[in-house]
Amino acid sequence: MTVFALLRVSPITDDDITDDVAAAIDALEDFDVTYETTPMATTLEADDVHELFAACAAAHEAVDHGHVQTLVQVDDKRDVEMAASDKVDAVEGALGREASSDRDA
């Protein structure tokens, strides 16, 4: 089984949230998941759905604020073994190029 998740943990505050996001990401290290953080969210990958949800819960709990919103979107591939990079590779194959722009930010 391969389970993917999109995770976004956001404290509701007017203050800078960088340290809070870092705490959420650091909490993932205690679990058997791989992850990649982007500017908008973190993609997680695990072999076990329970491990994945436990990691998401730990990331949520790691943020020490009175109001925290967490978004978790799960893709549970129950009959296929694949890596998150395989999904990106498939899109890039269809595009015939990398799935990112070549413009300078």
Automatic annotation (TrEMBL):
Coiled coil: none
Domain Thiamine-binding protein, first and last residues per copy: 7-92
GO annotation, cellular component aspect: cytosol
Protein name: Thiamine-binding protein
SUPFAM superfamilies: MTH1187/YkoF-like (SSF89957)
Domain of life (superkingdom): Archaea
Family that this chain belongs to: Belongs to the UPF0045 family.
InterPro entries xrefs: MTH1187/YkoF-like, Thiamine_BP, UPF0045_domain
One Pfam short name: Thiamine_BP
Signal sequence, renumbered to the chain: none
